[in-house]
Amino acid sequence: MAVVSGLSMIPTLAPDERLLVRTDGPIVIGDIVVFERAGQFEVKRILRIEAEGIFAQGDNDLVSTDSRTYGLIPHENVIGVATYRLWPKPGLIKG
Fold this sequence. Notes:
Helices cover 4% and strands 43% of the residues. It is mostly beta strands. It has a single domain, classed as Umud Fragment, subunit A (Ribbon). The two termini are 18 Å apart. The model has no long low-confidence stretch (mean pLDDT 95).
């Protein structure tokens, strides 16, 4: 499970939403992923997949700090894909 913090994924995800994260299987462009960066967990959308890592960006361009600032996320830092919102309104996450 992951908890969204910050405003970078609005309108898709809001702060304090709880997400179910799939840790196995492939990742594809458009997936919302949880990854570790600088000792913290982040939630962003994959825009590109390259040999060196993924390019991830928040849905809220005005406030998101993401791969546009810190570059590619190494594949080994990706925890998994957010697939389902557990709280406050349970349901599939639409990408």
